[in-house]
Every structure is written in structure tokens, then in C-alpha cells.
Amino acid sequence: MESKILIVLAVIGAILLFGLITPPPVTERGELIDTGHFVLEQGGVPIVEENYTLFFSMEEGYMLLSEASLSSGDQTITLAQQYQLDRNFTPVLYHLAADTPSGSQLISAQMGTKGLHMDVLVGSAHQSVDIPDNRNTIILDNNLISHYAVLLIAAEAQSIDRDFTAVIPQALLALPAHLDGPNAVEFTSGETRHTGKLYELRLGDLKLSLIAREGRLVGLFNPSQGTCAYNADLFPGGISLETSTQETRSLPVGVTEQEVTFANKGIVLAGTITLPDGTTEPVPGALFIHGSGPVDRDGNAIDPASGSVVMAMDAYRQLAHALAEVGIASLRFDKRGVGLSDGDTASASRADLLSDVRAAVGALRTQQEVDPERAFLIGHSEGAYLAPVIAAEDESVAGIILLAGAARSLDEITRWQVEANLRQQGATEKQIAEALKKEDQYLEFVKTSTGEWGDHTLAELQAAMPWLTGDAAAQLVATPLSLSWLREHYLDDPASTIRQVACPVLVINGEKDLQIPASEAEGIKTILEEAGNKDITVVVLPDLNHLLRHHPEEPNLTYRHLDDPVDPRVIEIITGWISEHSAR
After folding, report:
1. For 410, phi and psi rounded to 5 degrees?
2. What is d(CA 562, CA 3) in angstroms, rounded to the nearest whole number?
3. Tens digit of pLDDT for each residue in 432-448?
């Protein structure tokens, strides 16, 4: 169950009527030091346009004002912000208002005696949090490129440390950030080549490239999400980098790969077979079973509309190479409707995905380099729900590996997620109780529903969930997870399936996983032991998050360390376990 880190951050659960944000008169704003019109594109399609002005006065410091329009599907959301910083670029006051089809929302942040106090208000729902230490802190929002223009000015003035805290008010989050540079860079606009300065920004999991020219931000690139922002006043034709910031990938020595396709009921699925080089006899093989949502063969979350990567997990590719290095083949494939695979990901049910996995098992076993009697399944997140189903019905499966798996049904897990996330944010017991009441109404609707989201009117949805706004209903209809997928998972009893698994089982969970409780590992073990399975290995790793990265900080749902490799402990345990259980 991957979190989809979209550049349009779930549109801003928060904001005021525009009339409540009253900018100071022009004569009181100070000296105009920067202005511009930014365009943010994803896959070449504009999704945000922002006009901004930045003023400075010795008495008040900096004042940033901007208006923006954000396109999300067939909806347009207008944003207005007022952001005040002192002369040292420390946030003083921040307001962001969004006018959405279902009403206005508010996000605010204000310096106080307890630090930076942040509020998010959506209708009658209100959440707040304090950031105790607001020194060396700056507010950043991917929807508003002007924030990065301010960051660049602060960096060039050496008024902010290269290691700083990035505050994201709409998510009530504070993330570690690091800025490198500047380095000389060449970029083009149309047919003209330009020189500028390149800054590399690490913001949580994201790596962004900031392009400056003559002291001003002119471009921002987010390779992992396929987005590019540019100052349209200066470069109306957009800009492109001459040098790639993407990592050049190559196969490890002794590892080969082949592209493969296989069919399932008229749908052609595409994948990669990874093999140890120079095999002279069939070797053990493993099949990777994805987590939820639109996920490609490497485990990356994909935007189905543009095909661009919105979260580069890359875990399955790394594990496949590690397996091949110890003599184990593997197959990983694009989910239906993703990458080079046919089908529609938005309408895919749990039953559809299970059918695809069965076809993939057959494809793995038909590879001449693979021993069909030594086929293992590696299920991650949702895949850890599906792998036991295949193993229970196919006694020839040599073993299953459950990564971030659960013993309880998905509806119980999602309810736990809501409560755990709110407690981490410091919500009151009353707020938690209200949120869980809404979650229970949502879960009840899904479990008793029929058809798909598009088969239900807004009135029907609101009858079951009275708190549901028009915007929220539109997001449900547009979700990449079909209603049938949710319903089948919520009604499924994974414990009954786990009891039927007789093959060896390896369970790996992480203590820093906020999507699946680490305690689920022991729950799986207990069920297997009570059913008589005697070959069970359970490992709960400290400082491991849901996406299999070493995560020494407090657990959170904003993933970090994705630029780091998969935790070596995970690789060592998996390769060692399969090698041991496939030895002849």
C-alpha cells in the first residue's frame, strides 16, 4: 500500500476565503525585489500557473504574495498566498487560501512562543501542530514555485544553512532538507543555449534541481515525478537541461536480463527476467508481487495518465539483481495498465490481480533457465496478501516471502493507519474519535457496496458518508484503486488463507513502518504455527520503513531515504533464505 506522493498534494485540505487574506497596501509592502510568472508542467502538460511578487523592507523583512491556478483532472483550483519572513528569512506568518468547487479551505502558520504553529482547516475539521524550533526553517510547497525562489535568494545571501528544516503546513510536516551547489550548468530554451547555476535540493525523499540565472530562480526540475517548472516571463518556451540528473543504471557483473511478455485472458503483461550469467542448468526462481496501486516492475509508483514516475521505489529491481548475484533467477512485471502491460489499472479488482499473478507464476516456470520445482513468491505490502493465496492453492510453490505483510484484513489495517497517523500529529482523543467514526462509515459503505465508484451518485455516497464533500467524492471516483478492489480486500479474511499455507514462509516487517504495524509479523507466525506449519522465519527489523529502507528517524508516512539502496539487511536475509531453501 504505497503512499502516492503526487506533486499536487491532495489538494490542500485547508484554506480561507480570499476576502480574509488582505494584502498590505502597495505603499507599505516595501521595495519590489522579484516578480515572475511560473508554469509547472508534468509530462509537458501545465498543471500549475503562479504569478508572484516579493517585497522587502528593513522594518518588516520579506513579503511574498502570489496567486495560482492548479489543474486537477477536470477541476481548476485557485490559490492565494501571503507569506511573511523576517530579514533573516525566518517564517513569521503564512496564509494559503484555496477556492475549490466545494468551497474554500485554509492553511496557516504563525511564529509564536512555542515555535511555528500550523493550522489546517477544512470545513469544521481542524488540525494543528507546533514546530518547536523555527530557526533555520523555511516553508516549501511543491504547488507554489515562488517558495523555491525565496529559498534560492536566501541561499545566495547565505542566510540559511545548507542543512535546514522544510515545513509543509498543509501536511503538518517538518522534513530534513539539504541544499548543494551552485555548480555551473547549461540549459536551453527553444534554440538558444544559456548558462546558469545549478542547486541540488534534497527534500525528504525528493531530489530537486533548481536553476538560477542572474540571481533569480528560472527553473525547477523533479526527475522522479516528471515535472518541470520555469519562469515564463523570462523563458516563455520553457527550459530543458543539457545535462541529465538521472542516474545511469547498469547491470552488476554476472547478471543478465531479458524482456518477456505473457498473456492472461487476452491481456498481455510485460516484464523482466533477471538471470545469473552463464547458467548451465536450471536455477531457483522468484516472482515479485507488487504493492497496491499503479506500480511498475521495479516497484515505482506511476501516474497512469502521464506514465511518469511519482515515487521511485526501485526495490524489486535491486532485489532481483542481488538474487541473480547468488544464483537465483527472478521475474518482475508491470501491473496491468502500467508501463508496457495492457489493461486498465483503475478498474482492476483484487481477483484480476490474483489472476495476473497466476499467469506470472506460469511464465516464470516456463523459462528454460528456471527450475519449475524451485519457484518462490516475494510479496510486498498488498503482494504479501496475495502470495499466500497462490501458495495455498498451489502446493508446488517452494516458499513465500512476505515483506511488510499483515495477518489482519485491509479494513482493520487502514483503520489503524488513520489512528496512528493522527496520534503522531498530536490529535486529541475527540479528534481521533471523530476521524474513526468517519472511517467506519467509509469502510461500511465499501464493504456493502456493489459495482464501481462511478456507479454511485454523489447523493448515494453522501447518504452513507454525510461528511463527504463534492471534492472528496470526486477524488474517490478518480482514485487508482477500484471500488471492487477495496471491497474484495476489506471482505477478505487473510488469516483463513494463511492457515492453508504449508510451504516455508519468511516474514520481514519493519519497526518504522506506519502502513503495516510491526506486530503483524508475529500475528502471521501465530496463525501458521497453530495450523501446523513448522518452517517459519520471522524477522522484525529496527529502523526499517514500509519501502524497505533504513529509517533511523521517527516513523512517518512521508517516505525518506528512497535515494538510498534497499536496506542491506533485507537483501542479506532474503538471498540467504532462498539459497538455503532451494539447496538440493
Report:
1. -65, -30
2. 13
3. 999 999 999 999 999 99
Residues 6 or more apart whose Cβ sits within 8 Å of residue 552: 543
Q: Is 105 exposed, middle or buried (0-12, 13-18, 19+ CB in 10 A)?
A: buried
Neighbours of 460 (CB within 10 A): 13
In order of their start, the domains of the chain are 18-241 (no CATH), 255-409+492-582 (3.40.50.1820), 411-491 (no CATH)
User: What DSSP letter does each residue of 58-96 carry, written as one string?
Assistant: TTTEEEEEEEEEEEETTEEEEEEEEEEE-TT--EEEEEE
Residue 62 identity (one-letter amino acid) = Y
8 A C-beta contact, residue 341 and residue 262: no
Question: If you compute the radius of gyration of the chain from its CA atoms, what whole number of angstroms results?
Answer: 25
Query: Do 506 and 537 contact (CB within 8 A), yes or no?
Result: yes
Residues 177-233 pLDDT 10s = 889 888 888 899 888 888 888 999 988 767 889 999 888 999 998 876 678 899 999
Q: Is 110 exposed, middle or buried (0-12, 13-18, 19+ CB in 10 A)?
A: middle
Query: The pTM is what?
Result: 0.73
Rounded to whole angstroms, what are the CA distances from 102 to 72, 75, 144? 14, 11, 21
The residue whose grid cell reads 508516512 is 557
DSSP state of 359: H
- Which of 186, 207, 208, 185 has its CA nearest to residue 198? 185
